[in-house]
Amino acid sequence: MMNLPVSLGFYKSLEARMAKLPEREWMHTARLLASEDLYFLLRYILSTRSWVNPEDPTKSFWDHPWLLDRCREVQFDSDRVLDIWARFHCKSTIKTFAESIRRILKNPNLTVGIFSVTKSVADEFVGQIKFELESNELLRGLFPDVLYWEPQKESQRWTLEKGFVVKRNMNLKDATVRGFGLLDTSFTGHRIAYAVYDDAVNESNVTTPDMVDKTTKKWELSLATGMPGSTESYIGTFYAHGDTYHDIAGRGIRLRLHPCFEIDYKKSTFDPDTGLPLKLVHDRSKGGVLFSQEYLEALEKTMGTGTFGIQLLCDSNAGVATGFKLEWLKYYGQDPYDLRPHVNTIITVDPAGEKKKHSSSTAMWVWGLGKDKNYYILDGVVDKLNLAERTDKLFELVERWEPDDVRYEKYSFQGDIEHIRYVQDRRNFRFNVTEVGGSLSKDDRIERLIPLFSSGRVYLPEHIFYYNSEAQHVDLIDQWVKSEYLTFPNTQHKDGLDSMSRIAEPDMQMPWPRRTDYGKRSDAWRRELHKNSTAAPGTTWMSQ
Judging by DSSP bridges, how do beta strands 277-279 and 56-60 pair with one another? Predict the structure, then answer.
């Protein structure tokens, strides 16, 4: 591998030296650099070489160290990397447009698939590459062995709909570059060596959880177009928390964030498993990474903090009135069973009617109500369960924790309550089940929990380990905090929160223990003492 320049100053010197070369030697050097140096290709060969700095038209747009760094990253570290960059910071130009061209110049037998939310979006990227290869005379002159001079006449295929083919020495069925829509294209029969996912998520496919699920499923199916030795590259912008990019980051694809301001990593927190930001803080003191602080601040004011936060700050939680804060979480640091003698218990249940991969989950929480008027989570289940399975789980929790009440969310299409009563009769094991419903929306119900958490009255165990129905060993507390609590209301599923919200039903009495209620205390001597203290006069130890 050749040694590439490490600073913009080197390119200035290189440009001056190349200007003195004879034409043939200049062409040889330019060809070598164009295929081996992504920045050189963008800055000096492709049509992007004519771009000027919009804030200073006397300078080239590419004379910026941040863009040089991004080109180096993309060229040497972009396979199986999800690049989430700020809007209009050249992510598609560098990674989808220029890097795809560079790889084709190095290997004309490469098959490139560009996957976007729809085929029309993907074809815009394909069209940009196609037009460059058919109209850039300098590029065609440097690579006559790869590019046709009149591709519309000479190439076996040169279309937007079905892709186009450059000069290659292998008889391949797939085009050199072709576009695919995740939501409207069949991938069957295609074999793609280099898959580029650009704008796989936009505002059209984050409107509902079902739409997000559909996009994620189609992304999974698109991976079948690969083969041994193939790779994928991802580029985009967050649109909502829980969108398909979040799923991709959770599947082993490394996340790389480049917002318009530098990230203050000392103050920010990230999920150690996915790299997704839990709390993203930016350092604005140095100005924007590519554009001036004045321009970005004016744009933020016009665009609004929410849209600016997602699109420019790469923070899917920015500008959103998130209901719950990290600092509200409290943990009691004991084994939940140690609390059992000192609390009254209640179970809240939010059942899910189906057992499908992307459907809602059944959520059950065991609450301990303390004499201190605080709420303690003792146990729980969040899992995809059918009717028989969730009934069995409920009976397990009731036997283990002996609750004063079970609050069960009731829907007209579900026969859960009837089934529970049937099983109670069969097992000769009965407990009270209170049906809860109401006309409030799910988010409105969940928001009733905010005063409890913000006032520090809810305490969690550090862990609840659980084997779910897919035989996965999960920590329910860690999973719930990351996927629901910190991301509400933009989380895809809210089953755990919705089940918790039933503890705050305004028209139901809570079985709080009294300070003189010793019925559930394990220290028997105190109960005996209490009995003696209320005995008839003359029968206590004080009268002897």
Answer: unpaired
